[in-house]
Write a structure and sequence with these properties.
The chain has two domains: 3-157, NAD(P)-binding Rossmann-like Domain (Rossmann fold), CATH 3.40.50; 164-286, N-(1-d-carboxylethyl)-l-norvaline Dehydrogenase, domain 2. The protein has 13 helices and eight strands. By secondary structure, it is of the alpha/beta class. Helix 8 packs across helix 11 (232-249), helix 11 runs antiparallel to helix 12 (254-268) and helix 12 crosses helix 13 (279-286). It is elongated, with a radius of gyration of 21 Å.
Length: 291
């Protein structure tokens, strides 16, 4: 089974490395020379245009709709007739549907695979994997998808994986908004920062994401760490996809829109490259609290 993996950035590099460990012949392509060098250091073979005909499976990990549509169009016109296409990008439902029509015209099976988790979780094979597309293709791909994490879900024949990823990310973003409001309220009432985190993570709200943020932010005020696991600017991209989908589906997401507004305010105040939980700082500044 020959695999071609296109786009070996923060997520694509660990995903392709895990596929390599399964023993399949794999080649990778990227336009960024830094990523190419990192791939070489990881023992991956660099591919070229001729490998679109060599590949039985073509995987992609693209940063946005524009890049995804460009490569999906190229794949629809250049891969072998035996090839299967698997995309792992976080993109809009409409872009994925457009690509699906191109691929259907060429009779190229198309599996949508959305991964939930950051690049550190990808490297540790701890992602949650959401899949939709032809069930028989999913069944064939399952051993490969399982190399990325042991929580793998099949959700339907069309764009369900894309929408499920947006639902997951909505809840992750709203956790940061919930923390921003709750912790600001507590600080204004003289609750100690560390005490709030200790209680929150050991009571009903103590979710997996809450406990992860406790390890990062539940330190004394002067030592709390907003270094990014996923930046404010990256979360703005995802929240924009979510609110766009909501408009098309008629879903009223007033709270999510407010969270998106706070993310934009974080960027305006210089926190765009911090962890998305930096919207805590936005509300603290609104309340006149020191960061």
């Amino acid at each position: 089974m020959n695999i071609l993996f296109i786009g070996i950035g923060k997520m694509g590099l660990p995903l392709s490395s895990h596929l390599k460990k399964l023993g399949h012949p794999i080649k990778v392509i990227d336009i960024n020379p830094v990523q190419i060098e990192m791939a070489k250091q990881s023992g991956l073979v660099i591919g070229g245009p001729e490998d679109y005909q060599w590949a039985d499976w073509v995987f992609t990990s693209m940063p946005n709709d524009e890049a995804f549509l460009s490569i999906a169009k190229y794949i629809s016109e250049n891969v072998s007739t035996k090839a299967v296409y698997v995309d792992t990008s976080t993109i809009s439902i409409s872009a994925s549907s457009t690509a699906a029509s191109w691929l259907l015209d060429k009779k190229i099976p198309y599996l949508r695979v959305a991964v939930s988790g950051n690049n550190h979780m990808a490297a540790a094979a701890q992602l949650t994997v959401l899949s939709s597309g032809p069930k028989e293709i999913y069944d064939q791909a399952l051993p490969m998808l399982s190399s990325w994490g042991n929580k793998v879900f099949y959700l339907g024949e069309q764009e369900q994986a894309r929408l499920m990823k947006l639902v997951v990310n909505l809840l992750i973003a709203q956790t940061s908004a919930m923390l921003a409001e709750g912790l600001t309220l507590g600080r204004l009432g003289n609750l100690q920062w560390e005490d709030m985190w200790e209680v929150l993570t050991n009571s009903a709200p103590g979710s997996t994401i809450m406990k992860a943020k406790m390890n990062q932010l539940g330190k004394p005020m002067g030592n709390r760490d907003f270094s990014p696991t996923f930046t404010v600017e990256q979360m703005i991209k995802d929240l924009s996809l979510i609110t766009d989908a909501a408009k098309k589906l008629g879903a009223p997401l007033a709270q999510t829109q407010t969270t998106l507004d706070w993310m934009h305010q974080a960027v305006a105040e210089g926190d765009g490259q911090l962890d998305y939980a930096a919207i805590i700082r936005v509300l603290e500044r609104k309340a006149g609290l020191s960061n």
